[in-house]
Amino acid sequence: MSAQARCTPVRSVGAAAHSSVFESKWWVSNERRWLEIAAHQREYFNRLADVFDVPQPEAVMDRLRRIVAASGLHRDDVVLDVGTGAGVLLPLIQSYRPSLVLACDLADQMLAHVHTKNPLVRVVQCDIVRLPLKAASVDIVFMNAMYGNIADKPAACANVASALKPRGRLIVSHPEGRGFVEKLRAAGDLFIESLPGRGEFQALLQPLGLKVVTYWDEPKLYLMVARKT
């Protein structure tokens, strides 16, 4: 079985934070394809941890600020950053003074960078499909520049929907837009799927109790915000 067959809390910020958000049991997928994709992505992004952990151009940072602002994040919210990578969103999220920030990723080397720069963020090495979140425990979930990499999107979104509090929001975004994702798809063998249209998202999310309330598909910015009803 792959090294990613379990979720590993890399650093903790205390037992209270752990018990308030994480379930004591979690679902385990037996699909060989999922395990292969997870293992490949972990290896790929571990190799590139230093490459990703660099300052971003100001134009990209401006778009990232728009993404975080569009979430409706408030002080004392509980926030989950899925596929956090080197943690580019975390300083922007923390500027809103949330009560707890969780960051998950498949790549342990990415998370090592995150912890070094953001010691108060609770980081967990795990696929979002299997992240053991308690029901109605999270206010905001970000999936920035990573949604196409999720192998089992229905299961991932179902886990997020369950974890969101009433009126909680899921934000799927990319600060370089749909065209950039398509170039990545054509350039290599990493598992990446195209970003969904608004109708595709609504068809996926509505049965989970989520409603698409914002959808931007600009040349240099992709953003979808869904709210739990």
Q: Write down the CATH topology.
A: Rossmann fold
Percent of residues in helices: 25-40%
Largest sheet: 8 strands, mixed
Structural class: alpha/beta
CATH architecture: 3-Layer(aba) Sandwich
Outline: globular
Level-1 CATH class name: Alpha Beta
In percent, how much strand structure appears in the residues? 15-25%
Q: How would you state the average pLDDT, rounded? A: 89
What letter string, H or E per element, gives the SSE order? EHHHHEHEHEEHEHHEE
* Strand element count: 8
Number of domains: 1
CATH superfamily: Vaccinia Virus protein VP39
Report the radius of gyration as a whole number of Å: 16 Å
Q: Number of helical runs?
A: 9
- Which stretches are poorly predicted, pLDDT < 50 over at least 5 residues? 1-6, 10-18, 24-30
